[in-house]
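Incident log, structure service

09:12 report received: a user says their structure output differs between two submissions of the same chain.
09:20 pulled the input from the user's history:
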Amino acid sequence: MARPCSAAGCSLPRSGDFSAYCNSHKTHLRRHGHAEQEAITKTTLRAYVETVRERIAANAENPGWAILEQRWAAVVRDAEARVASYRRGQPSFAHTVKAAEEVLLIAGEVSPRAILETVAGMLLMLDVDGRRFKTDRSFKAQVVRRVRALCASTAPAYRDPRTGKARRAYREPGPRTVAILGGWLIEALGLAGTYIARREREDLEARRKQSADLHKALQVLA
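09:34 re-ran on a clean worker, output below:
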């Protein structure tokens, strides 16, 4: 008798002798970086991205934003060089080349600011609600999914022959490509989310202290 899937709460049989998961969770592992990782949707991320935008707007003259965009431009230039080298016939690691091609796809369709907002929003979410992410690998996978979702060409439209409705088919790169691309995105742009998260914590603590001081002062009213 086949052993049950290792994912929490799943009693389906494993997909094979050497797999720890059922077919469904095995697919989920490939797509999300962990068999039990929740998919981070645009709606889930929206509030965090809005916080990032507000911080950027409140500090519009800060040169850090331009520097971060320059860091992304450096990633794009490196990706161009990797792809060009591969096309000239130079030996290349396939997953790195694919990640570089993904960078060029993203850069061709999405503004640096939108990419920055998304990556920083994900880092802010990690700081505020880190339990959402099962592992570092699954966090990188969600960063990549949210950034790639900004590109129309990563989810081309098609018409469902059964319903006649327009749908989108999400084309996913392999797990190794995702890990490389996620690392590049976080290394180049993640610092913004880290610092914004710190300021959010500082502001929250200041508000709590002000509220506590107010309560203390009102308690001694005659």
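09:41 both user submissions now match this output. Likely a transient worker issue. Closing.
09:42 reviewer note: The beta strands are 157-159, 166-168. The chain has two domains: 1-36, 40-158+166-212.
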